[in-house]
């Protein structure tokens, strides 16, 4: 079976994702990516530092999909702190079918470039809360 690549991921985007993945900062951070439908390339729309998942959600457009790489700082309450990396495919309701197909078809390539294993989908940015994220990651309490 042949891999289908709907869009390309420029080297500078891959480098930024690699740098993000291996960052040493001790806070939450995000990279929001979009696809330029004219060039069919993934581009970084925004990079956020020291941000909550709700603040990231506020930056997402109402009617256009986005890919989000998010580094979450989780305090386990027993002295341990972990920094799980999450990939969120945000595709709100009402997106044009063509746009949806471009993003859905590009998701595997973007996911491979991030090398993140915790993958979630989100339809409504308002539901993107810390409680939602903790549930998805399996953290309770």
Outline the fold blueprint.
Blueprint: H1 11-21, E1 29-36, E2 41-49, H2 53-59, E3 66-71, E4 74-75, E5 81-82, E6 85-90, H3 97-114, E7 118-122, H4 130-137
Parallel strand pairs: 6-7
Antiparallel strand pairs: 1-2, 1-3, 3-6, 4-5
Summarize the structure.
This protein is α+β, with helices and mostly antiparallel strands and 141 residues long. The chain is built from four helices and seven strands, in the order H-E-E-H-E-E-E-E-H-E-H. It has a single domain, classed as Severin (3-Layer(aba) Sandwich).
Protein described:
The chain contains 4 helices and 7 strands; from the N terminus they run αββαββββαβα. With 141 residues, it is of the alpha+beta class. It has one domain: Severin, CATH 3.40.20. It has a 5-stranded mixed β-sheet with strand order 2-1-3-6-7, covered by helices on one side. α3 links the parallel β6 (85-90) and β7 (118-122).
Name the descriptors.
Severin; globular; 31% helix; two-stranded antiparallel ribbon; 4 helices; alpha+beta; 141 residues; five-stranded mixed beta sheet
Average pLDDT value? 92
**Shape assignment:** globular
Alpha-carbon Rg, integer: 15 Å
Distance between the termini: 44 Å
Enumerate how many helices there are, as a single number.
Answer: 4
Family: Belongs to the actin-binding proteins ADF family. GMF subfamily.
Subcellular location: Cytoplasm; Nucleus
Keywords: Cytoplasm, Nucleus
Main location: cytoplasm
């Amino acid at each position: 079976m042949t891999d289908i690549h709907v869009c390309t991921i420029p080297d500078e985007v891959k480098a930024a994702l690699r740098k993000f993945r291996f960052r040493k900062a001790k806070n939450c951070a995000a990279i929001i990516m979009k696809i330029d439908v004219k060039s069919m390339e993934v581009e970084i729309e925004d990079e956020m530092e020291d941000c909550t998942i709700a603040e990231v959600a506020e930056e997402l457009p109402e009617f256009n999909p986005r890919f989000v790489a998010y580094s979450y700082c989780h305090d386990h309450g027993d002295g341990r702190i972990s920094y799980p990396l999450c990939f969120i495919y945000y595709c709100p309701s009402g997106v044009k079918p063509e746009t949806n197909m471009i993003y859905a078809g590009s998701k595997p390539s973007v996911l491979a470039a991030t090398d993140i294993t915790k993958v979630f989908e989100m339809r409504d940015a308002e539901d993107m809360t810390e409680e939602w994220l903790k549930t998805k990651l399996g953290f309770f309490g």
